[in-house]
Design brief:
This protein has 14 helices and 17 strands. It is of the alpha/beta class. The protein has two domains: about 300 residues, Zn peptidases (Aminopeptidase), CATH 3.40.630; about 150 residues, Glucose Oxidase, domain 1. A nine-stranded mixed sheet has the order 8-1-11-13-12-14-17-15-16, sandwiched between helices. An eight-stranded mixed sheet has the order 3-2-10-5-6-7-9-4, with helices on both faces. A hairpin with a 2-residue loop joins strand 2 and strand 3. Helix 3 packs parallel to helix 8 and helix 10 runs antiparallel to helix 13. The protein is globular.
Length: about 500
C-alpha cells in the first residue's frame, strides 16, 4: 500500500512539474513576439485622424478592415474559403429619420415623436385590419392568423424592464411577425426605466440616420413604437382584439450596404483538441466625427475604445500563428459594435464554424483606464478560465479584478454577450478601471481619446497578460465552461449537450 501511495504522489508531482514547465514555456513564447514598438505603430495608425474615427459605415472603416486583414495575412493566419480576403460581409441598412409616422385607429390619431417612433421600415401607406397578440411571443403568434394584417403587441415580455432586452425582444418579434406574413408591427411602449423623452432623443434626435442589420430580404418591414404611458391603448386592444388601422410613413429612405468583420484562424497542434476553437475578439469600429471640443477637434479617434482591444487581438494572432496552441484559434474583429453590437450579432448567426466547436470567447473591449496596476475582467468569477487569467496577469505584474461597476451592466453591453447568449463562455478583458470616474469620462467617446496620450509601459503589460492568458487557455487540459449558477450556464449545457 505504501508503495502504491508513494507512486501516486510521484505521479502527481511529475504532472505538476510538466504543467509548470508548459506554463513557463508559454510565458517565454508570449515574450518572443511582444513589442512595444509594434503596439505603438498599430495604435497610431488605427487611431489616426486620417481614419476619422472608423465610423460604421465609412470609407475609413473599410481602410481599417483591410489594414487588419493585411496584418493577419502577414502573420500566416489562415482565411476561411468563403472569406479569402479575411473580410466577412455584414449586411446593414442606413435609415434616414422620417418626416411623419402617423398611426390612426378607432378615431384616435397618433403623431411622430409625440406618440410614435419608427424602429424599422420605409415609407408606407397602410389601411389594414390590425390584431392584438399580447406580448408577441411565439405562443401568442401561434394562437392567431396574422397573415396580411398589422400586428399590435405590448413591448417587452411582461417580466423585465431592461431596455436592452426590450430592444432584443423587438427584433425577435419583428422577425416573427414577418415570418408569419404580417405587414407591420406596432408595439405599445411603457417603460419607466427608459422614459419616452429619452427614447425620442435616441431614435429620433441628433443624427438623421440610424444603422441596423439588414437580415431580411424583400421589402422593408414596418415596425412602430406607440407611447402608452398609462396603458390606455393596451387596455383598448385587450378589449377589442382587432381594429381597422392606418399607418402612414413619409420621408424615410433606406440604403443597403455591406460592412465587414475581419476573420481568420490558426489550426491547433493537438490532433484532438484542434477541433475546439477559442475565439479572440474585439470591435474595431468607433463613433466617427462628432461635436468639436474646445480645441476645435471633432474627430473621435477611439484609441482606448477600441483600437487597444483590436491591437490586443492582433498581438494574439501574431503570437499564435507563430507558436500555435493545442486548441485552434479563431480571430474576429467586429464592425458595428457602436451601433448596437451588430457585427458580433451577425457573426454568431453566420459563423463559418459550428458554434458548439467554439469553446470560449476571450473578448477585449475598453473605455479607458484609471489604474495601471490592474486588468479589469468583465466576467471574472463566471467561468472556469479564471485561474489562467489571474496567473497571466500576475506574471506581468498586474492584478486581475472583477467588474467594479456591475450596476452598468457591462457584461451585456459588449460583443461578448452575443456569444454568451448562445452558451459560449465569454468574458471581456479590459484596461484597468476601478470606477467610472472623471478620468474615464475624460476620454470615453471624446476627441481626446488619442494614441499619443496612452501609457505604453502599461499597455506592454496589458498586452502580454492577454496573450499569455490566450496561450494558457489554448493549451489547458480541460476546456473552459460557465460556473454553475451563472445565468448563461443552461444555455452552455444546451449548446454543448452537457
Amino acid at each position: 500500500m505504501k508503495k502504491i501511495y508513494t507512486g501516486v504522489i510521484i505521479t502527481m508531482i511529475s504532472q505538476m512539474v510538466v504543467l509548470t514547465t508548459i506554463a513557463q514555456n508559454d510565458k517565454k513564447l508570449t515574450d518572443a513576439t511582444l513589442s512595444k514598438n509594434k503596439i505603438k505603430a498599430h495604435l497610431h495608425f488605427l487611431a489616426s485622424d486620417e481614419l476619422r474615427g472608423r465610423n460604421t459605415p465609412s470609407p475609413e472603416q473599410v481602410i481599417a478592415a483591410k489594414y487588419l486583414a493585411t496584418q493577419l495575412r502577414s502573420y500566416g493566419v489562415k482565411p476561411f474559403p468563403q472569406y479569402p480576403n479575411y473580410l466577412q460581409p455584414v449586411k446593414m441598412k442606413k435609415k434616414s429619420k422620417p418626416k411623419t409616422v402617423n398611426l390612426n385607429y378607432a378615431d384616435k390619431q397618433f403623431k411622430f415623436i409625440k406618440n410614435t417612433l419608427l424602429l424599422d421600415g420605409g415609407n408606407v401607406d397602410l389601411n389594414q385590419e390590425a390584431v392584438f397578440v399580447n406580448h408577441g411571443t411565439k405562443a401568442d403568434f401561434n394562437k392567431i392568423n396574422v397573415k396580411g394584417k398589422i400586428v399590435v403587441a405590448i413591448c417587452g415580455d411582461g417580466q423585465t424592464n431592461s431596455a436592452q432586452k426590450w430592444f432584443r425582444f423587438a427584433n425577435e418579434k419583428r422577425a416573427l411577425a414577418r415570418k408569419k406574413g404580417a405587414v407591420a408591427l406596432v408595439e405599445l411602449y411603457r417603460n419607466q426605466r427608459l422614459p419616452w423623452s429619452v427614447l425620442v432623443r435616441y431614435l429620433a434626435g441628433g443624427s438623421s440616420t440610424a444603422v441596423s442589420l439588414s437580415e431580411d430580404e424583400g421589402k422593408p418591414f414596418t415596425h412602430v413604437w406607440l407611447n402608452d404611458p398609462k396603458f390606455e391603448q393596451a387596455d383598448f386592444w385587450k378589449k377589442n382584439k382587432s381594429q381597422k388601422t392606418e399607418i402612414q410613413i413619409t420621408g424615410s429612405n433606406i440604403q443597403q450596404f455591406d460592412t465587414y468583420n475581419v476573420v481568420g484562424y490558426v489550426e491547433g497542434n493537438d490532433a484532438k483538441l484542434k477541433e475546439e476553437y477559442v475565439v479572440y475578439s474585439a470591435h474595431y469600429d468607433h463613433v466617427g466625427v462628432g461635436k468639436a471640443n474646445a480645441k476645435g477637434d471633432s474627430i473621435y479617434n477611439g484609441a482606448r475604445d477600441n483600437a487597444v482591444g483590436t491591437v490586443t487581438v492582433l498581438g494574439a494572432a501574431e503570437n499564435l500563428a507563430k507558436y500555435p496552441t493545442k486548441r485552434s484559434a479563431l480571430f474576429v474583429m467586429f464592425t458595428g459594435e457602436e451601433k448596437g453590437l451588430l457585427g458580433s450579432r451577425w457573426y454568431v448567426d453566420h459563423s463559418p464554424i459550428a458554434l458548439d466547436k467554439l469553446v470560449y470567447c476571450f473578448n477585449s473591449d475598453n473605455g479607458g483606464y484609471n489604474d495601471t496596476k490592474i486588468a479589469t475582467i468583465i466576467g471574472l468569477g463566471r467561468t472556469t478560465a479564471d485561474v489562467y487569467i489571474k496567473k497571466a496577469c500576475k506574471a506581468y505584474g498586474l492584478e486581475a479584478i472583477d467588474d467594479p461597476a456591475k450596476e452598468q451592466g457591462l457584461f451585456d453591453r459588449s460583443d461578448n454577450v452575443n456569444f454568451a447568449r448562445k452558451g459560449i463562455p465569454a468574458p471581456t478583458y479590459s484596461l484597468g478601471f476601478r470606477a467610472f470616474d472623471a478620468e474615464i469620462m475624460k476620454y470615453y467617446h471624446q476627441a481626446t481619446d488619442q494614441a499619443d496620450n496612452l501609457d505604453y509601459d502599461y499597455l506592454y503589460k496589458f498586452f502580454g497578460s492577454y496573450i499569455y492568458s490566450c496561450r494558457l487557455i489554448g493549451n489547458a487540459a480541460t476546456r473552459p465552461f460557465w460556473k454553475e449558477g451563472d445565468k448563461y450556464y443552461e444555455a452552455g449545457k444546451k449548446l454543448y449537450k452537457k
